[in-house]
């Protein structure tokens, strides 16, 4: 396809050299370290890990540094590296009720079991630039107000654990077959090894939504919210914290823990008015780290899919790596293709003259 390109290797080599200089920037400014990115750019790291489908903060931070902060490129790098890794085993289904909470809120229930925990969130900030961050300063530590809030929420006591959610509207919920507890009857599908094709099972749907590009899913969710009418969804429960990952060693017949991961989960409900069949329809979202926007958008889209949103539109187009690759390839030489199109246009015109 690109045979007409001449001298491409030299040009590409020069381009890579220029890229390395651009990545480093002004040599008088201290170089950004992977550790700094990992510790101070958590939102970006969490998003790259989620869409890259690989939980490794160091590698995600490295990808962000290599990609100059380009989230799509960093996701591409991490997913490409993931494809080279040996698959050792599959983990056991995660028990979300065992999550040690850093954050736990609900938009539908004021009195949550264990209390609502705001934790660290941008939800209540004024979205004004903090110019004090322009200069380096030592960490301020916790204030008296911070300590009071922590004590009230139980932070300085034993770690809070998510309790099974019970609600006064449980009888209005349809069977939550989209949630982890409802997927046990379905054999999980490894979406990295199986081509996407309808019909889409529960694990395939959630798998593609987890890896889906956050901006795309947020846009779909926003479209649904603006046209929802009486079916406006609500965040029933949003929790963030740490869960333990268990792996079965088949040769030994043992199930062992391999570590904890940071995770955020969102349960969404939306009213569906249909006479006697009126009910609350559920949606579920999950992401690595504290990637709340992704989890909420995913849960909204998951609920919309159950309400009739075209799964082909969402699942076949939500992958940010595929979308970015297809759009970016338009910048590469298409000389032969373009000449063929020109010839078709000229021929079509001549046939009508």
Key terms for this structure?
353 residues; four-stranded antiparallel β-sheet; alpha+beta; disordered N terminus; 12 helices; EC 2.7.8.37; 2 domains; Alpha-D-ribose 1-methylphosphonate 5-triphosphate synthase subunit PhnI; alpha-D-ribose 1-methylphosphonate 5-triphosphate synthase activity; transferase; 14% strand; PhnI
Description of the structure:
GO terms for molecular function: alpha-D-ribose 1-methylphosphonate 5-triphosphate synthase activity. InterPro entries: PhnI. This is Alpha-D-ribose 1-methylphosphonate 5-triphosphate synthase subunit PhnI. Pfam families: PhnI. Keywords: Transferase. With 353 residues, the chain is α+β, with helices and mostly antiparallel strands. It has two domains: 75 residues, no CATH class; 207 residues, no CATH class. It has twelve helices and four strands. A four-stranded antiparallel beta sheet has the order 1-2-3-4. A hairpin with a 6-residue loop joins strand 3 and strand 4. Helix 3 packs across helix 4, helix 3 packs across helix 5 and helix 4 crosses helix 5. The chain is globular, with a radius of gyration of 24 Å. It starts with 7 loop residues before the first helix and ends with a helix. 27% of the residues are buried.
